[in-house]
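Chapter summary example: a protein plus benzoic acid.
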Amino acid sequence: MSLRLGDTAPDFTAESTQGKIQFHDWIGSSWAILFSHPRDFTPVCTTELGYVARLKPEFDKRGVKAIGLSIDPVDSHAKWSDDIKSTQGHAPNFPIIADPEKKVANLYGMMHPAHDEVYTVRTVFVIDPKKKIRLLITYPQTTGRNFDEILRVIDSLQLTDAHRVATPVNWKQGEDVIIVPAVTDDEAKQKFPSGWKALTPYLRLTKQPSK
Ligand code: BEZ
């Protein structure tokens, strides 16, 4: 059965560009994003890996570790890193799993044979420090992912874990948030002393609380 939100991210051991990784130990008390790309030395993947490397300070700020995966071997990943640096300005500064036997790819449902029988599709898993899957997205091979959107979701997850709020459409850091319907107006007076604007009884907007 395929993985779903709230499931424990399966643990595994795999070789990577930064040595052998025991996945849960590697995550430790951080958040993690695990993302697959179809194969090395391909154009869309090259742009994605360079961009994820560029975003490292943003991931660090949020306590998130990134890890990539493709079914090519470690020496291929290492050679490809030079191209990523020369074309994107950033070499991968996170591990890339080598999964030639597709063990991790199959464990995480990254193989979609009707789309491609041999290579993985583009998946993204956001995993929290309790090792629960909090977001999963699957993209086709020909579409590069929007990693700014992944950061935006992580901001929402971390905020909504800390406060009884939800984030509205296209929300970004610093914008108003929604008080969840389970919070009564009486409780909301305590939790959100700066008040709120009720557009309907169930749609109450308040300033973003600090994390
Ligand atoms: C790419 O990363 O450029 C790519 C990979 C597989 C199919 C199409 C594009």
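Key point: The longest strand covers residues 64-70.
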